[in-house]
Amino acid sequence: MKTWTDMQSLQPTVSKMLTNSIKKDRVSHAYLFQGSRGTGKLEMSLLFAKSFFCSYRDGIEPCHNCKDCNRIESGNHPDVHVIQPEGQSIKKEQILHLQKEFTYTGLESNQKVYIVEDADKMTANASNRLLKFLEEPSRQTIAMLLTENGQSLLDTIRSRCQILAFQPLNPENITKKLMDEGLPESTARLMSALTNNLQDAIDMSNDEWFAKARKLVVQLMEVLQDKPSEALLFINNQWMSHFKDRDMLDQGLDLLMLWFKDIVYEHIGNEDSIVYIKERERIQTSSYHWSKQKATNALTYILEAKRKLFANVHPTLVMEQLTLQIQR
């Protein structure tokens, strides 16, 4: 359950704009919430809906305990409709069903809210149907379109929405929240460097596959430093058997990138930014092996490897080339 105080700490600009619109009774009929995954778009939209429906609101803050608030929280409010992709897309039939629902009088009021998650995944037909819906706004209807890629929406849809940009979350805030959830600082710092999504971070921290991935990064660095002639053997026998597909390997490269960033931080004396704090001695050892320039070069090589990975270069070849580049 998110409050406006919570959201103001996560998305201060967006929160201020929305709360001001509530205070001044100038709520728009359509909003476009755009920002990367995990930045609070859905939580903000549900909180906004609560403020719209709650009869016991204290200023801008809904009570979070009344029938309306509880049903919105559980996804069971009859006048709040959330549309999500069916499979890979949001289809025309889903928008038609929404339009049909909105022809009925509200079950408990004439207020209605609809939230479209992953709005950029609407088919062309669905987008056109939604556009017609937006062109005939009701005074008591609010639309909230949520997307990671607002530019992919029709310009005509964008022009009918108030666009609110959700900023990436501050890693320090994420680290603190993860520690509040019981994660040790070393794990919390690593998770916050990998994802903006708190639930994803918690899930990863409990994932045995991810724990093994972290160990393999440490082992790879030790092999590169102490037994460079065995590096390619390690890649083929141990690394690739764990990072079995492109998404897994991409995550492995992210972990490797963080290690080389830590080497750079060690060189410039920015200890507070080091992510692998539990491996501080190993980071120091790595900094003796890789100069700041070589560590920076390694970061460039890893970014290029990530690009090749999704350009359909064979994953094993990507890792072998990267290993040889880092060893130069």
Automatic annotation (TrEMBL):
Q: What is its EC number?
A: 2.7.7.7
Q: Name one GO molecular function term.
A: DNA-directed DNA polymerase activity
**Entry's transmembrane regions:** none
User: Record's Pfam families?
Assistant: DNA_pol3_delta2 (PF13177)
The answer to keyword Ligase applying to this record is no
Could you tell me the Gene Ontology terms of the biological process aspect for this record? DNA-templated DNA replication
Q: Does the keyword Transferase apply?
A: yes
Report what the protein is called: DNA polymerase III subunit delta
The scientific name of the source species is Pontibacillus yanchengensis
List the taxonomic lineage: Bacteria, Bacillati, Bacillota, Bacilli, Bacillales
